[in-house]
Amino acid sequence: MMNIVKVISTKLDDQSRRLIKYLRMGKSDVRESLQASPYGTDSNPIADMVAVYAPTLQNGKPVIIGYVNKNQIADVGEHRIFSTDADGLVKMFIHLKNDGTAEFGGDAKNMVRFQELETGFNQLKSDFNSFITTFNVHLHAGVTPGIGTTASPITPGTPSAADISGAKIDEIKTL
Question: Do 105 and 126 form a contact (C-beta atoms < 8 A)?
């Protein structure tokens, strides 16, 4: 028979399997079982999570098969994964939305494709630096540079040293 249980703590055994210590049928019924989860998923519940306990055909080998989620906001067809601190406050999330968008930790700013941004930026920087070179060597007809010139001196332009490499996020990849 499956039960709803309350998580007390967790630990890894000597085979790197997660063991969940929980209260099953009152405060004197403390037990420990393996956590079962989908392939490729590694999660560690916080204390006081409400879990689903299920027996197996192996006598004395029950498992924790899931948790009652207090942070559900995904709409129909969506998938959201998140992490929390020990108090259950969401700290980071990835939300795959049903409109084809994805949110990585929020929805206030946009991510960019760095390579395309860098290509456009470098072209702009090159065009600007070519303009500065042309500006610095140009002469006005009828004006003789040097002593006695009545024209205001022209301050030479400075080539751009702009750099956007600090905007690149190596830890997050996209299409």
Answer: no
The set of long-range contacts for 17-22, using a CB threshold of 8 Å and a minimum separation of 24, is 18/44, 20/45, 20/51, 20/64, 22/51, 22/53, 22/64
Q: Where are the domains of the chain?
A: 3-67, 70-109, 112-134+157-167
Whether residue 32 contacts residue 19, with contact meaning beta carbons closer than 8 Å, is answered with yes
Which among 172, 38, 22, 45 is positioned nearest to 112, based on CA atoms?
Answer: 172
Q: Is 97 exposed, middle or buried (0-12, 13-18, 19+ CB in 10 A)?
A: middle
pLDDT in tens, the chain (175 residues): 888 899 999 999 999 889 999 998 888 889 898 998 888 888 999 998 999 989 888 877 889 998 998 878 999 999 999 999 999 999 999 999 999 888 999 888 888 888 888 888 999 999 998 988 888 887 777 666 666 655 566 677 888 888 888 888 776 766 6
Instruction: Check residue 151 and report its DSSP letter.
Output: S
Q: What amino acid is encoded at 89 in this protein?
A: L
CB 106 within 8 A of CB 95: no
Cα gap 8→50, rounded to integer Å:
10
Q: Six-digit token pair at 61?
A: 């080998």
